[in-house]
Input
Amino acid sequence: MHEESTKIKNLGDIYRTIYYNGPCSRQNIASCLGLSLPTVTNNLNRLKEYDLIYNCGFFESTGGRKANMLRCISNARYAAGIDITRNHLSIAIINLDSTIIASTRIRIPFEDTDSYYQFAAQEMEDLITKNKIPKDKLLGTGISLPVIVGADQKSITYAAVIQIRDGIYPRMERHIPSPFLLFNDANAGGLAEAWISPSQRGEVYLSLSNSVGGAAINGKDISMGNNCRASEFGHMTIIPHGRKCYCGQQGCLNAYCSANLLANMTNGDLKRFFDELGENRGFQQFFDEYLDYLAIGVNNLRMCFDCDVILGGNVGAYMTDYIHVLREKAVALNPYEQDADYIRVCHYKTEAAAAGAALYFVNQFVLEM
Ligand SMILES: [Zn+2]
Output
């Protein structure tokens, strides 16, 4: 390998070793990467000059001098995520730690117009200014939408939940600062969960928002499928000739498990539905039926993927108190298992899609360091 590219690779490898493993000593890094101590020291000095790492303390001595504990600076870079839904706009700014530093959620109906994108860009700008985030440290903006995004992440191949004309990217480009890319909302939400998950194994994310979608996660990657339409779990048929779905088909999981069905009971206010659920017999019956259908969907995912299923989206955020009921219903459908501990509730209660879209840029930064 060319000398210069070896140097760049060493710098990146050392940064990634600290980033992925947490506090490391110079000796840890040298033995982990098979590099000499002087090479490691030179690179660590450069990373400190770039304000990417710092000494966060000392390791306990095993005789001799205590070794410096090195850690990545979380606020060395930031990324932004904008989640566009039919009636809301959410914006989140995350740091390299994938911690949400600032966020906002505004009720505003989506319109594919210049004034809407201008408004979104202004809200993001205000959030950045208010939180004193240096613009030169912003890696990029991920935009999550309830649509199917093309492989270039600049085009949309299918949109039914919101109305979008062709050529959305150039229209957004007039307002949203570069670089930015488009993401399917459920994939973005799944990515956020994958990053926070301690498990390196496969997981499936089921997003229960106003439209139902999902993501199949492998480690920190999302399976996209041959047509970038993998994990469209919302359009699995669960009831032949059943309820009409917005996609034009009948009996899709989406028609039975959309968050709208619950929110419509309380004039579109999902929080109120769950607040009143404990006292309202009618709501309880309705929700029990909702869980019956959800159990079918979740069990189908278990049969296909044989891995944990994470419930996310607007309904997922409220599922902690009802997970035992869903697990019982799912076990009753499962020929192999006596419990359904594989069903889990999402970590991000809000802003998962915005955070996930932003995480893409954090991931790229770390990989390309
Ligand atoms: Zn459908």
Summary: The chain has a mean pLDDT of 92.
